[in-house]
Amino acid sequence: MNATWRTLDKHESSLDIMFRYYDQLTSLESKVPPNDIQIPFKWKDAFDKGGFFSGTASLTLSSLSYEKLCILFNIAAMQSQIAAGLGADISDDEGLKTCAKYFQQASGIFQQMKHCAPNVHHDLTPDLEADTVSALQALMLAQAQESFFRKATADKMKDMIIAKVASQCEELYGDAAKQMGRDSLKSIWDRIRSLQPIGKAVLAKPLPVPEKFSTTGQDLFGALLPVSVSQAVQKFEVRRTEIVNGEIGRLRQQTQYLNGVLASMNLPAALEDTTGNSLPPSIRDKAEAVRSKGGIQAIRKLISDLPVLLERNREILNEGERLLKEEEESDQELRTQFRERWTRSPSEKLNEPLRNSLAKYKEIMRVATDADKTVQEKFQKHQRYIEMLSASDVSGLLV
């Protein structure tokens, strides 16, 4: 990479060095987050101070986008210098073709730079500003068209073809002159307007910048995973963890449900030895537990108290609902009476939490009522056995 900091000869081998370096930068940029690049890249303004381009002498940034932009500028500059040397001899047919190709590639690179410059997010030196790059792009395109004109002249093509190529060449140079602030053709505009317009043959056009300049160089960062791949792997790991945790949660939930079913069936405690003439210890313990809590009489009292407690709770909820309704009606009357002077928040809004609580407790009462019915049904069904467990001598009940 250090080769790019040397003074390179005006030769295609120099382009190959810069091509490989640019490709390595592009590869690295796709695999390393921009904020992780802490390499300072320093470049000087390409034009001498005091010329028609002038400004800050140099700029140093730790940005791959800035380094790529400067390398593109140098590639285009090198291509234009090589093209200028090849186009000197109009008798060299291949030289003129290569000259036109390099000028077109340089124009395409300057055009690409206008789209890449905003990625730097920093004020650039004048040689990289949009107006400068646009002027250079127009100049490269005009010189490419001139190369076609010189080849058409050397090949002794028809006058009409040469005239069309020359007309387009004149237009491109006029555009370049306009962008650079020059107006050298103004003195002959009147004569040009009096002539029949000549058709144009558009041969020169900016060539697109390839994804990779060099096809022979080794990608030094080929072993690194692109940032997009690393992010995809991280998302996969997160998703996998979510799925595993979800399955574990469902497994635990089903395990708890199964344990509840077994407990409701008194399993596995119910699987005791019943071959003898005495009660299993578990039955004795349950009988003692029933007697210690008052036996069946205590259960009957609790069940008989359920309707009274239910009615009391219903009265409390109804009274609360009535008070809320009265308060809201009073608020509405006062709001109607005083209009905009009544600035208190609406009772409907203030009482919303209370009404939500009221609805919640009504639902609780509904569920509790259904549960009470279930308890009463089970009590009626198993009342005889509860009476047996409440007896003082459970062993005497064994048949």
Secondary structure layout:
Layout: H1 12-29, E1 41-44, E2 58-61, H2 64-86, H3 93-116, H4 130-154, H5 159-179, H6 189-194, H7 227-264, H8 281-292, H9 295-338, H10 347-350, H11 352-390
Antiparallel strand pairs: 1-2
Helix pairs in contact: 1-2, 2-3, 3-4, 4-5, 8-11, 9-11
Structure overview:
The model is unreliable at 50-55 and 182-192 (pLDDT under 50). This protein folds into three domains: 2-223, Alpha Horseshoe (Serine Threonine Protein Phosphatase 5, Tetratricopeptide repeat); 225-271; 272-397, Butyryl-CoA Dehydrogenase, subunit A, domain 3 (Up-down Bundle), CATH 1.20.140. The chain has helices at 12-29, 64-86, 93-116, 130-154, 159-179, 189-194, 227-264, 281-292, 295-338, 347-350, 352-390, and strands at 41-44, 58-61. The longest helix is centred in the C-terminal third of the chain and has 44 residues, at 295-338. The radius of gyration is 46 Å and the shape is elongated. Helix 8 packs across helix 11 and helix 9 (295-338) packs antiparallel against helix 11. The chain has a two-stranded antiparallel ribbon. The protein is mainly α. Helix content is 64%, strand content 2%. The chain starts with 11 loop residues before the first helix and ends in a 9-residue tail after the last helix.
Quick description:
Residues 1-258 form the BRO1 domain. It comes from Rhipicephalus microplus. By secondary structure, the chain is an all-alpha fold.
